[in-house]
Amino acid sequence: MQLVTKQSKLGRPVKKPDPVIVENLLLHVANGGTVRAFCREKNNPSLLISSRTKNEFKRFDLNGKHIETIPLPGCWICRPVIKGNNLFFAVIITESWWNYDGMLAILDHNNKIISLPGGNMPKYKDGVLQKPIYDQKTFLNPHDVCIDNDDSIYIPQWNSGKTYPVKLIRT
User: Fold this and answer.
1) Using CA atoms, how far apart are residues 113 and 123, in angstroms rounded to an integer?
2) Closest alpha carbon to 93 in 82, 106, 84, 105
3) 3-state SS assignment for residue 19
4) Mean pLDDT in the chain?
């Protein structure tokens, strides 16, 4: 892996990924969060940043220019996982940390939610996602998504009474 080191405004080193190796590169940032290199277009890599409290993803080019914001009202999102043309992520909560009201979300290449396992069918009104509704049974604080080569999806759960990850098998 080749990283280019620069100096930030505060004089601290900043690492910038080489665009050739950016696909699915995971970088750790100073606050302990993560920035996931996002590459749906092989020749146009970008960074996709989760903003859990704002219920949105923000996408930037590798020079830091804002490209787009993907609003996801009511979705307290976890890290994105890219598989093919889709983006998968856990929604840890929609209402309250105490309701265990999370679900999984899948966005298509147009950044529209096409499926909400653990929730209702996604609904859009005038192009705006309507707040999803938890199904009251599927997940307890889903906190991540992992996808294997058979397209099975594994969902670990946080603060869920020591449950094992849930495995969804593609049929």
Assistant:
1) 9
2) 105
3) helix
4) 79
